[in-house]
C-alpha cells in the first residue's frame, strides 16, 4: 500500500465498517424520530469529510404537502428537524470515526428525494489551530 492509502481513512482497514455504521446509525435515527426512514443510504469518508446521502422516507404528511405544491413547507420542516437532531447525528459520526465533529451542514431536495448530511472532522486544515 502507498503512504496515501495509509493516511486516507476511506482506504484504511475498517473504513467500510465505519461507513456502514454511519449509514445505519443515520437511518435508525430517522426511523425512530420520523416514524419512517430512508430506503437507501450511502456514506462517503475521506480525510476530514463525511458525507451521508439518504433517499426516501417521506412521511404521509410530507407526501401530501408535496402533492399539494407545498414543497417549501416540507423543506423548512425537514431543516428544522435536522437542526434539532444535530447532536444525535454528530454522536453517530463521532462514535463511528473516533474523531470530533467540528462542522455539520444539511440539505434536502424533493425530486428526486434526497437528504445530504455533511460532517467535518477534527483535525482539519480548514480551521486554525487554537
Strand tally, please? 4
Order of helices and strands: HHEEHHHEE
Q: Order of strands across the biggest sheet?
A: 1-2-4-3
Measure the end-to-end span: 34 Å
Which spans of ≥5 residues are poorly predicted at pLDDT below 50?
Answer: 1-6
- Main sheet? 4 strands, antiparallel
- Approximate helicity band: 40-55%
* Discrete helix count: 5
Mean pLDDT: 87
Structural class: alpha+beta
- What coarse outline follows from CA principal-axis ratios? globular
Instruction: Report the sheet-strand fraction.
Output: 25-35%
C-alpha Rg (nearest Å):
16 Å
Q: What is the strand and helix layout of this fold?
A:
Blueprint: H1 3-7, H2 15-34, E1 40-46, E2 49-55, H3 60-67, H4 71-84, H5 86-97, E3 101-110, E4 113-121
Question: What features would you describe in this structure?
Answer:
- The model is unreliable at 1-6 (pLDDT under 50).
- Strands 1-2-4-3 form a four-stranded antiparallel beta sheet.
- The protein has helices at 3-7, 15-34, 60-67, 71-84, 86-97, and strands at residues 40-46, 49-55, 101-110, 113-121.
- A hairpin with a 2-residue loop joins strand 1 and strand 2 (49-55).
- By secondary structure, it is α+β, with helices and mostly antiparallel strands.
- The protein is globular.
- Helix 2 (15-34) runs antiparallel to helix 5.
- Helix content is 45%, strand content 25%.
- It contains five helices and four strands.
Q: Summary?
A:
The chain has 130 residues and is α+β, with helices and mostly antiparallel strands.
Amino acid at each position: 500500500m502507498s503512504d496515501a492509502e495509509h493516511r486516507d481513512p476511506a482506504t484504511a482497514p475498517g473504513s467500510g465498517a465505519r461507513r456502514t455504521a454511519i449509514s445505519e446509525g443515520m437511518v435508525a435515527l430517522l426511523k425512530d424520530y420520523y416514524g419512517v426512514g430512508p430506503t437507501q443510504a450511502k456514506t462517503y469518508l475521506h480525510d476530514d469529510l463525511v458525507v451521508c446521502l439518504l433517499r426516501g422516507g417521506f412521511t404521509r404528511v410530507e407526501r401530501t404537502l408535496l402533492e399539494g405544491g407545498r414543497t417549501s413547507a416540507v423543506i423548512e420542516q425537514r431543516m428544522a428537524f435536522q437542526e434539532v437532531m444535530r447532536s444525535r447525528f454528530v454522536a453517530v459520526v463521532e462514535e463511528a470515526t473516533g474523531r470530533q465533529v467540528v462542522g455539520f451542514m444539511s440539505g434536502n431536495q424533493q425530486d428526486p428525494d434526497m437528504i445530504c448530511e455533511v460532517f467535518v472532522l477534527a483535525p482539519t486544515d480548514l480551521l486554525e489551530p487554537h
